[in-house]
Specification:
By secondary structure, the chain is mainly α. The chain has 13 helices and two strands; from the N terminus they run αααββαααααααααα. The chain has a two-stranded antiparallel sheet. 72% of the residues lie in helices and 1% in strands. Helix 1 crosses helix 2 (34-55). The protein is globular. The longest helix is centred in the last third of the chain and has 37 residues, at 332-368.
């Protein structure tokens, strides 16, 4: 039982550490804030992963749930989406939409690259890499799922009850709640298990092969069947050229480039201006999702590439912590020491995760020999 809960507990802690401390938003002296941040961030990340895995929603479902999580936190709890002066910023000057009452830049920035990618998806990818044999199965039973839900509710309540939080109009709160509910429903709509889909596709292909064999002479049909069997043995769709997914190194490099582009747009927004930054964020999200979805359908895509996506975003957070001023007071020396410590810990964690992914991949190859 204890070993079974280790990855769940790891995600519970890693999510807030990555989302606030590795990012550089909070200094090391704010670690006691984990009492609230762990239930909010960690409980939310656990619920997202467990629900997606139980429903067979996979990573597309987790992406939608992660965005819904961001809408709840920033729309209903901190209400930063509607606060024109959140954290001392003049968000009304950054692509403000008067009829909606939100900053288009802040919305695209905080919901996508910050909450969805940094607080939820990257920690999940890294924790799954640490336990590759259990990466695609639930980590919690029903009691554990209930506990995660209760913890998340407590963290959410503690955040929402902050007396200094912005008081948004009821209409805006309702819109945020409906948006989060729609995203959740879309993510958790009934999915057919991947194995069932694969079996159905294989059955349809075999039926087509039998029909073609009946239309041709026995010798020609036998020769074509042998060709198709050889192609399947090589992991190739019959009659089609093999398109392999890029390796983990290439995926890691492209993720680091995407992270650099994302944060440069944010750090230079006063030069770039808000609407170009909004366009850059949306283009980056769309291109990244389309590219990863395309790669994931190719031969060779697996745990190593998924880990590379999460590792790339966590390493992006690590370098970002150094130019990022902390939201709470801290001396430059303390801030630097904390950034170095969290960055070093992240590198060690990623190295351990990579070694386990490689070991699991090697064991799979040996088993097929």
């Amino acid at each position: 039982m204890g070993k079974r809960l280790v990855p769940a507990l790891g995600l519970f802690v890693l999510s807030p550490l990555a989302g606030e401390f590795l990012l550089g938003n909070l200094p090391v002296t704010a670690l006691p804030a984990l009492i609230v941040l762990a239930p909010l961030y960690g409980g939310g990340a656990l619920l997202i992963r467990e629900l997606a895995r139980r429903r067979g929603a996979g990573w597309p479902g987790m992406v939608l749930l992660a965005v819904a999580y961001g809408v709840v936190e920033e729309g209903l709890l901190t209400r930063s989406l509607f606060d024109p002066h959140f954290a001392g910023m003049d968000l009304a000057s950054y692509a403000w939409l008067p009829g909606v009452g939100v900053s288009a830049w802040w919305t695209t920035f905080v919901l996508g690259g910050v909450h969805a990618a940094g607080s939820v998806l990257a920690p999940i990818a890294v924790m799954e890499a640490l336990v590759p044999s259990r990466a695609e199965e639930p980590w919690l039973g029903r009691p554990g799922l209930v506990v995660a839900g209760v913890l998340y509710a407590l963290g959410a309540a503690a955040t929402a009850l902050n007396p200094d939080a912005y008081r948004a109009p009821a209409g805006q709160l309702a819109a945020a709640a409906v948006t989060a509910a729609l995203l959740t429903a879309l993510a958790l709509r009934r999915h057919r298990p991947a194995a069932t889909l694969a079996e159905q596709a294989q059955g349809q292909e075999r039926e087509r092969e039998r029909e073609r064999a009946q239309e041709q002479g026995p010798e020609r049909a036998q020769a074509q069947e042998q060709e198709r069997a050889a192609e399947r043995a090589r992991g190739q769709a019959p009659g089609r050229a093999v398109k392999r997914a890029p390796g983990a190194g290439a995926v890691l490099g492209l993720t680091l480039v995407a992270g650099l582009a994302f944060w440069l747009a944010a750090l230079t927004i006063d030069v770039l201006r808000a609407w170009p930054a909004v366009a850059a964020n949306l283009a980056l999200y769309g291109a990244a999702y389309a590219l990863v979805a395309r790669w994931a359908r190719r031969t060779g895509w697996g745990a190593a590439q998924r880990f590379a996506l999460g590792a790339g975003w966590m390493l992006t957070y690590a370098w970002h912590s150094f130019p990022q001023p902390p939201a709470l007071p801290a001396t430059p020396a303390v801030d630097l020491a904390g950034n170095v410590a969290f960055a070093a810990a992240a590198v060690v964690l990623l190295a351990v995760a990579w070694s386990r992914v490689r070991s699991a991949h090697g064991a799979e190859e040996t088993a097929t020999l």
